[in-house]
Amino acid sequence: MNKKNISNLENLTDEELLALRFSELHLKIEDTWLQSCIQELYQELTEKKINFKPLCYLADEWLCPDGEPVIGIPFYLAHQRLKKLEYKIMLEAEGGDKTSCMKLLRHEAGHAINYAYRLHRRKKWKDLFGPFLSEYPEKYKYKPYSRRYVIHLEEWYAQYHPDEDFAETFAVWLAPDSNWKERYKGWQALKKLNYVDFLMKDIFLKDPVKPVGKKYWDIKKMKMKLDTYYKRKKKLFAENYSDFHDFYLNKVLDNDVMEDNADKVYKILKKNRKEIVKDVALSTGEKKYRIDGLVRKLTERCKELGFKFAGNEKEIILKLSVYITAQIMNFMYTGKFKKKR
């Protein structure tokens, strides 16, 4: 496929898009809605008298490379057609609206400013947030009701790592009208917010120690095909759901229904899959792709086991939604689904 054929991404099929390499997308931030979001971020920093404005570029995901004071923004946000593809494959497009985009920009700006001024080297920073060089855990257990951390991004992300704790605290501090002094009054997290407030006043109009960073995973230089990228991304979030769900399905469902007019459970799940995924994601904050994988597995097992239901359809949806929510919450807390006993 030559450059002439891909000049208008809107006209390409999913298969044609997936066959492209990142470097062939020819995307840019300029003249897109992202430009105004970045300008708004810079204005917020200016109003807080922070002299540093981190460079933003298009990457394969939201990121601030370790130690590099720059912000990577997912490529799919720069074009509506690519955002549509992301949503179709992953069931969501992180940062796809202005509100969520600004929250993520403020978070990544926290990382960038931390690196630019090397704030994590300060003793008080380490005392409040923890060791910056500690390893990121493969899975993390968080406490939803903990008052030691601010609440900003989903999944109580501040509890993941000291660097994330600082970035989340900074984001809350930076957000206009966040009213953090009142919002976190009585919380241990207020100490961190006050410290961020002190730090930003300390670097008032100062030039950063490291003003320039390397743009890792810049899509302009990436030769990977989108098809390969999405296969790896799906594998990263996908889980192998074993048949231990059968134990719970047999408790929740009645496999002895013999009525000819009884509805097959798998058809009910299949018909309501999107709504179930949406509702569970809303209540748990978990990735829709992971929830969808679980729902599909349960649908398949209900079909294989021949479950039927003679009651109200809303009743079976409620029962299964409660079970799915419980499984997802358990996964979020422990990194695995609850085993049968």
Describe this structure in words.
This protein is mostly helical and 341 residues long. The protein has 2 domains: 213 residues, no CATH class; 96 residues, no CATH class. It is built from 13 helices and 4 strands. The strands form 2 sheets. It has a two-stranded parallel ribbon. A two-stranded antiparallel sheet has the order 3-4. The longest helix is centred in the last third of the chain and has 22 residues. The chain is globular. The N and C termini lie far apart (55 Å). The N terminus is likely disordered.
- Strand ordering within the main sheet: 1-2
User: Could you estimate the helical fraction of the residues in percent?
Assistant: 40-55%
The secondary-structure element order is: HHEEHHHHHHHHEHHEH
Kindly give the count of domains. 2
The low-confidence parts are 1-5
Measured distance between first and last alpha carbons:
55 Å
**Number of strand elements:** 4
Sheet having the most strands: 2 strands, parallel
What class would the helix/strand composition place it in?
mainly alpha
Name the shape in a single word: globular
Strand content: under 5%
**Please, how many helices?**
13
